[in-house]
Amino acid sequence: MAAVALKCTAPWRFVKLRSLVRSTVPSLKFHTTASPMMAATVEQFEQAKSNLSTLKNDPGNEVKLKIYALFKQATQGPCNTPKPGMLDFVNKVKWDAWKALGSISQDEARQQYCDLVGSLVAAEGGSSAQVAAQPAGSGVAYETLLVTTEDGITTIKLNRPAKKNAITTEMYNDIIAALEQAAKDDSVITIFTGAGDFYCSGNDLSNFTKIPEGGVEQMARSGGDLLRKYVKAYIDFPKPLVAVVNGPAVGISVTVLGLFDLVYATERATFHTPFSQLGQSAEGCSSFTFPKIMGATKATEMLLFNKKLTAAQASELGLVTEVFPDSSFQSEVWTRLKAYAQLPPNSLALSKQLIRSVEKERLHAVNDAEVELLMERWVSDECFNAVMSFFQAKAKL
Ligand code: COA
């Protein structure tokens, strides 16, 4: 796939930009403190521009496009330049991003630009006027995650409801970063949940269709490295980790549940790991945690024979801590979690670490073994054919 470059005023300014044609810029959601009553001053805008150039981490293509669009809107007003041609990919996605801002005023665009840059600076632990302006309970800006800290609870919410919260390569990296941040912040517990009617539909299968220059072997190697790092972030997470399973869960969102400390599920949730159907094999340490939690034969039904469990069945088998009626799920669970977050933080964290320390080395070894096998599976015909069938079936609909 061709790689193109997007120009931005930051250290990461010439970056490879893949698949921008599939960009979902209009659906981007950012935390913003913008208000029609309040607009950033020209000085604040200038300050935000120079803060942008101090960022060390690449915030990702969609955020960079949003920054670009807000800058253009703030300095030139609504987009009224001619639409670039279909083959002028880079200018077309930039134009789309600017156009998507519609008729918002230059003042409003300036404020949103300052807010966005401020939250990126805050995410890197810096300080700026915009950081101070962030309200309590707000969080770091990610493209497809909503991360907030409030009442002693850091919540990591997968926020890609149109794709049932399927996890893209960028999301894996963002989740790792969010977990690292949550481990260090002043929250007591960390919660994982999903936006919309699904908890998560697992690995985004289109990750398999983005073949790098080094071919499928290269794709398998970098996929393996990322997966190892992703699962490691759960194994090493030092505070109580709670899954609030708000709907059906598939694949890796299910397998890592064995590494959570509590799993609360709505009665609507289901738990499905269709690995053999996809020519793949288990990950998330489930080849170790599932037999341990539910016994070898029940784990086999799930991990080899793709059995989908209801929330009640998952609870009977010990994978889920408790199931709640869908109508009262959110209120019951959050009331309980807010009370848990009042407990002494060190006592909770140290007790969790004590319980997990017994098998930590083992879990890392299991993670390594699972990743090795998966890297082989990903280059197999069985896997290739299964992924192609998924997208072909979609195409026929
Ligand atoms: N990877 C890529 N795209 C996914 C996805 C995934 N894991 N899960 C859902 N999507 C996409 C669908 O392709 C669809 O996209 P579209 O609107 O552009 O067509 C959109 O999300 C909504 O999904 P849809 O299939 O229409 O919803 P549904 O309620 O009928 O079914 C699932 C939801 C999750 C059961 C179904 O999408 C599915 O089986 N997904 C694959 C799950 C999977 O195998 N995960 C990997 C496990 S290892």
TrEMBL record:
InterPro entries: Acyl-CoA-binding_prot_CS (IPR022408), Acyl-CoA-binding_protein (IPR000582), Acyl-CoA-binding_sf (IPR035984), ClpP/crotonase-like_dom_sf (IPR029045), ECH/Chromodomain_protein (IPR051053), Enoyl-CoA_hydra/iso (IPR001753), Enoyl-CoA_hydra_C (IPR014748), FERM/acyl-CoA-bd_prot_sf (IPR014352). Keywords: Isomerase, Peroxisome. Residues 41-126 form the ACB domain. One of its GO terms (molecular function) is fatty-acyl-CoA binding. GO terms for cellular component: mitochondrion; peroxisome. It is found in: Peroxisome. Its main location: other. SUPFAM superfamilies: Acyl-CoA binding protein (SSF47027), ClpP/crotonase (SSF52096). PANTHER family: ENOYL-COA DELTA ISOMERASE 2, PTHR43684. This is Enoyl-CoA delta isomerase 2. It comes from Stegastes partitus (bicolor damselfish).
